[in-house]
Each structure stands twice: as structure tokens, then as C-alpha cells.
Design a protein that fits this description.
The chain is α+β, with helices and mostly antiparallel strands. It is built from two helices and five strands. Strands 1-2-3-5-4 form a five-stranded antiparallel sheet, covered by helices on one side. A hairpin with a 7-residue loop joins β2 and β3. The chain starts with 10 loop residues before the first helix and ends in a 9-residue tail after the last strand. Bound molecules: adenosine monophosphate. The site of adenosine monophosphate (AMP) has 11 residues, from loops.
Amino acid sequence: MTSETQGGDTIFGRILRGEIPCDAVHSDEHCLAFRDVAPQAPVHVLVIPRRPIPRLADAGEDDQALLGHLLLVAARVARQEGLEDFRLVVNSGAGAGQTVFHLHVHVLGGRPMAWPPG
Ligand code: AMP
């Protein structure tokens, strides 16, 4: 794998490079899914691309297939976790609550979800 696909310089990059452990629930050539260390619901999994896109706002046309893949994997993980209903969250930018600047999809489920989100 090239450095481009090794995850970049964030904590998620370090997880992708195997430098720090994670509780993985799915792995393929394009993405990794693992349990959030501070779960906000009974099921809380993060799906991240191996390619380090900082924010969803930084994704381009070339990322179309990858973004679709992340959503399909998120739904597959939800099913695998026994969830019929689930919520996906992508925080893009600090003002939206993003704290790790490596694109990730939160998969949340196992409790009722309120709307609007905070
Ligand atoms: P966000 O606030 O959308 O950027 O989400 C970042 C998420 O990463 C938070 O829900 C954190 O709990 C989670 N997180 C941070 N470090 C780790 C880690 N080492 N392993 C698993 N999840 C993490």
C-alpha cells in the first residue's frame, strides 16, 4: 500500500497503520470499521476510508465510488450488529462537531433516536 492509503496523520491514520489497536468489525481494501471508544449508543461503529480525506467537504468527484462504498458498508455493519433501525452521522468541520479530521461515518443504533440531533 502507498502512503496515500495508509491513513494520514490522525489517530485514525494510526489505527489504519496498526500503531494503536481498535475493535474492528469490518475490513476491506477500501475501508475499516471499528467500535467507537466512547460509544453514544449501544452500537456505535465508525466506518473510515483507508484513503485519508480530512472532511466530507474535502471529497471530490473521484471519491464518488468510495463514498458509496462507505454507506454500503455502514448498512452492512448495522445489519451485522442486529440493527433494523440505525442512524448514520457524518460531522464535517469543527463547527459541526468533527474532532478527528479523517472522514468517518458514525453508525449508531440500539436505542431510540431523537430529532433534531444536538
Ligand atoms: P467526530 O467527533 O465526528 O470527529 O468523531 C470522532 C469519534 O472518534 C468520536 O466519537 C470518538 O469517540 C472516536 N474516537 C477517538 N479516538 C478513538 C479511538 N482510538 N478508537 C475508537 N474511536 C475513537
